[in-house]
What does this fold into?
Amino acid sequence: MDLNRITFNQNIMGGKPCIRGMRVTVGTIVGLIAAGRSNNEILEAYPYLEIEDLRQALSYAAWRAEEIDIPAVFS
It folds into this structure.
């Protein structure tokens, strides 16, 4: 999986996964799609984004959702 448009920088949005180093988080994109916004609506609202940015944001979110968290055991 090539997610070269998803970036992490502690100085941008607190290190959250962002699109190409911009102040647009993966969570923002996924939230807009979940709210029923179309790709065209998102691209009109964020004209500096590209369709591939949206695709990779969804791919990254799907990959993260599949990760398995193992709870820490404290004694």
